Q: What sequence folds into this?
């Protein structure tokens, strides 16, 4: 069996989520919007799942809108907020956001909106003061990630809420990577909108949610019916919601112990391979990072070559970079953090999760240096690759 170390891309389905879906399939009801008994039985299942998802971020169940995933949640937050704001035409974000934030912002920019992307520091931190300095009477929305998907840096976003409110702007937080890994409370963050993703927690893929504090300040982007408090038309994905709810409950119940265990495994792995690979560099901070995430620059090799070599050995990681026009491009996050093209192209993301064991990490800690030495000897990073 492969050793899966790509949880930031998507976690394996938790046993609790699989069991919940199996029970639902064995007793499949009707459409949750129908008034007959089968429909109402399905409706109760949907609302139990909504309450379970709400609980993991300290929200009220009525404030949770189910979507198809984090990408749709981010699109609903951004386009919905801009549409509802009507006359305001400015959006503030950062240079290191997920593509599901950056792409909608780029589309709004194409339509003539004013967009600001704040640069991070060398550890991937976005200074709240620099964000607040961008606020004015034209600002409709501030949209930022709570924890970066590539390097794991946790942002200090709570100071933004009161100033955004005072300026009349909405604060949207993409918490897809953070929820279930660190405590996330919407009240403490003071945000207006917050994105969640089911498959990051161990639910089946294709389900997400958006926390909405005030429905009067968000416009729907999908039309056709009154589903999800009028925010998302269409028959709800009951299977996905039930899976999400079960995974959210399991993640919340295990979070304290799981965070310590996974953080200890990640720290041990980092120490072992740092000792064995001279010049290995951690991208991101030592403190203030998701406990499961290691983004590492391997000296003298291409990350793509390392990824392939590790995959052949049964270890699954990622580069944290995008594929554009058939060519692997350097990570926009690492480049915004000031890393060179060569460092960005030599980096891999290792992200641990609920199903990883100490035995797996011990094996990986021994294997990675061996693979690095083999790749470095066979295919050293060329000067061309550094440009």
A:
């Amino acid at each position: 069996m492969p050793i899966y170390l790509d949880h930031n891309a998507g976690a394996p389905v938790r046993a609790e989520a699989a069991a919940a879906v199996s029970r639902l399939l064995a007793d499949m009801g009707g459409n949750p919007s129908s008034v007959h008994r089968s429909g109402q039985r399905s409706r109760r299942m949907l609302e139990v799942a909504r309450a379970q998802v709400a609980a993991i971020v300290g929200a009220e169940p009525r404030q949770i809108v189910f979507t198809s995933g984090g990408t749709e949640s981010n699109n609903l937050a951004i386009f919905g907020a801009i549409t509802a704001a009507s006359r305001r035409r400015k959006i503030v974000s950062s240079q290191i956001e997920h593509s599901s934030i950056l792409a909608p912002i780029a589309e709004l920019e194409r339509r003539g909106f004013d967009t600001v992307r704040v640069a991070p520091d060398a550890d991937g931190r976005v200074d709240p003061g620099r964000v607040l300095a961008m606020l004015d009477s034209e600002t409709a929305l501030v949209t930022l990630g709570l924890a970066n998907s590539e390097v794991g840096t946790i942002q200090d976003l709570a100071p933004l809420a009161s100033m955004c409110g005072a300026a009349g702007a909405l604060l949207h937080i993409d918490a897809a990577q953070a929820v279930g890994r660190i405590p996330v409370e919407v009240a403490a963050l003071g945000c207006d909108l917050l994105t969640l993703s089911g498959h990051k927690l161990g639910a089946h893929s294709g389900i997400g949610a958006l926390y909405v504090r005030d429905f009067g300040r968000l416009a729907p982007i999908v039309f056709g019916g009154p589903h999800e408090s009028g925010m998302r038309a269409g028959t709800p994905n009951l299977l996905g919601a039930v899976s999400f709810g079960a995974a959210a409950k399991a993640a919340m119940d295990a979070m304290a112990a799981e965070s310590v265990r996974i953080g200890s495994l990640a720290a041990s792995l980092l120490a072992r391979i740092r000792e064995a690979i001279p010049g290995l560099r951690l991208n991101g901070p030592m403190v203030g990072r998701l406990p499961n995430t290691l983004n590492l620059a391997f000296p003298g090799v291409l990350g793509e070559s390392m990824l392939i070599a590790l995959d052949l050995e049964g270890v699954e990681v990622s580069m944290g970079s995008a594929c554009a026009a058939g060519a692997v491009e350097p990570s926009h996050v690492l480049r915004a953090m000031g890393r060179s093209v060569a460092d960005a192209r030599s980096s891999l993301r290792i992200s641990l999760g609920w199903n990883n064991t100490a035995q797996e990490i011990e094996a990986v800690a021994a294997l990675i240096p061996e693979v690095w030495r083999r790749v470095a000897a066979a295919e050293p990073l060329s000067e061309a690759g550094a440009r």
Remarks:
- The chain has two domains: 3-9+255-386, 15-250.
